[in-house]
């Protein structure tokens, strides 16, 4: 689906049916029961800033985001004549993404999918220069996997929110735990502290975020306003516990960043002292953070129950006479300005992750329920040097 900038996404609406009258034996009688109007199909309208396509072109980047509430993976790229492409595919409860220009790892309801770009360099398909196809799924069961990372040795690790730990894949079992916060007394499927975010640095896990230090079932729900923390997984040190529902820690350009979601802030954090510096206010529940140069791309969500009751964000929106957003905002971290944006209205109300694709012009993905996945067949190049070797000497690529 491709849309021109500043125009809402085209939507399809079902026509309402009406009751009829029928003639029986020449007499006009009403139908037994008026037809019930069919339910209108939920739709989503997408608007974006006029400069979004130009920004992507100038910085040679595209990006994507997920919506677990609607089960969507969105890819955003640029088209000729300054238009913006929004490509959408369904993945039930789409959550965290670990992305490179060639490969995506995507967590969803009870699996982690690996999607590979099948297009060679400088080749396009229907105007897209990346086509990501699902190639492998690791079935974990419903662990409420949030964010993902890939270590320098290629091992995939993830935040196992249900069991309050950092984990990796197991050949036989649902997961293999590799770290848990010291305040979690045992692994239990209780989402005790709402461990949710993962920051990678130099190919290894560095920081995680949690809503609080609770060690009882869903105890974090009573601690949303304060007590949110960032922890260094290398030595179990708590960097800060002064946040409100923190999400999406990131290490970028040698600095630690985080979304102080309950207060609607993008923050920079001093790794030694834990002191936070607010870069800008964000008019929504912030979740999903990616960087490209000195720009931050942040996902925003609407409240689930009509308000952010109990959170400082609710008061900040009222003070600023503002309505909450669902969408993505691009921030210049040098001054806190919102330079470009996407806003979604309608069916999609909550986003989870945002990821950047440097060097990619216009990406698309193949989903699991559209017929394309059955017919999207590609063949790996069989080079002449490979053909000349005995089969036993050929070394296939091994991917988690």
Describe the 3D structure.
There is one protein chain. This protein is mainly β. The chain has one domain (56-371): TolB, C-terminal domain (Neuraminidase). It is built from 4 helices and 29 strands. The chain has helices spanning 52-59, 312-319, 372-375, 384-387; strands spanning 2-3, 21-24, 27-30, 44-48, 61-67, 72-79, 83-90, 97-99, 103-107, 111-117, 130-139, 145-150, 156-160, 165-168, 176-179, 195-201, 204-210, 228-232, 237-243, 246-252, 255-260, 265-269, 276-281, 285-292, 295-301, 327-332, 337-346, 354-358, 363-365. The strands form 7 sheets. A 5-stranded antiparallel β-sheet has the order 1-7-6-5-28, covered by helices on one side. A 5-stranded antiparallel β-sheet has the order 4-27-26-25-24, covered by helices on one side. Strand 18 (228-232) and strand 19 form a beta hairpin. The protein is globular. Residues 1-32 have low confidence and may be disordered.
Q: How does CATH name the architecture? A: 6 Propeller
- The general outline is globular
Spatial extent as radius of gyration: 24 Å
- Secondary structure category: mainly beta
Largest sheet features: 5 strands, antiparallel
Query: How far from one another are the termini?
Result: 31 Å
Helix content: under 10%
CATH topology: Neuraminidase
% residues in beta strands = 35-45%
Tally of DSSP helical segments: 4
Beta strands, count: 29
Total discrete domains: 1
Low-confidence stretches: 1-32
- CATH top level is Mainly Beta
At the fourth level of CATH, the homologous superfamily is TolB, C-terminal domain
Mean pLDDT: 88
Strand order of the largest sheet: 1-7-6-5-28
């Amino acid at each position: 689906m491709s849309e021109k900038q500043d125009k809402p996404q085209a939507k399809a609406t079902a026509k309402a049916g009406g009751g009829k009258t029928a003639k029986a034996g020449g007499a006009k009688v009403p139908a037994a029961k008026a037809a019930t109007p069919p339910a209108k199909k939920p739709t989503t309208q997408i608007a974006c800033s006029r400069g979004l396509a130009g920004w992507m072109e100038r910085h040679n980047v595209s990006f994507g985001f997920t919506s677990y509430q609607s089960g969507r993976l969105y890819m955003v790229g640029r088209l000729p004549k300054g238009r913006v492409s929004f490509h959408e595919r369904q993945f039930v409860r789409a959550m965290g993404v670990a992305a490179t220009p060639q490969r995506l790892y995507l967590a969803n309801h009870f699996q982690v999918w690996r999607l590979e770009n099948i297009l060679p360099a400088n080749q396009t398909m229907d105007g897209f220069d990346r086509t990501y196809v699902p190639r492998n799924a690791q079935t974990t069961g419903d662990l409420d996997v949030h964010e993902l990372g890939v270590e320098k040795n290629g091992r995939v690790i993830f935040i196992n929110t249900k069991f309050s730990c950092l984990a990796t894949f197991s050949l036989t079992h649902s997961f293999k735990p590799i770290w848990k916060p010291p305040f979690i007394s045992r692994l239990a499927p209780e989402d005790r502290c709402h461990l949710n975010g993962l920051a990678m640095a130099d190919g290894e896990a560095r920081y995680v975020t949690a809503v609080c230090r609770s060690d009882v079932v869903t105890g974090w729900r009573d601690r949303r306003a304060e007590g949110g923390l960032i922890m260094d997984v290398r030595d179990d040190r708590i960097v800060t516990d002064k946040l409100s529902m923190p999400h999406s820690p990131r290490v970028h350009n040698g600095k630690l960043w985080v979304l102080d979601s309950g207060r609607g802030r993008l923050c920079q954090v001093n790794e030694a002292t834990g002191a936070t510096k607010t870069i800008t206010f964000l008019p929504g529940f912030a979740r999903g953070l990616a960087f490209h140069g000195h720009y931050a791309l942040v996902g925003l969500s609407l409240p689930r129950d009509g308000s952010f009751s109990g959170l400082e964000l609710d008061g900040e929106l009222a003070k600023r006479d503002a309505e909450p957003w669902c969408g993505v905002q691009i921030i210049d971290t040098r001054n806190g300005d919102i330079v470009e944006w996407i806003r979604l209205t309608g069916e999609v109300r909550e986003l989870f992750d945002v990821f950047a694709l440097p060097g990619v012009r216009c990406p698309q993905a193949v989903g699991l329920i559209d017929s394309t996945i059955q017919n999207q067949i590609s063949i790996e190049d069989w080079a002449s040097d490979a053909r000349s070797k005995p089969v036993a000497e050929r070394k296939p690529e091994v991917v988690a």
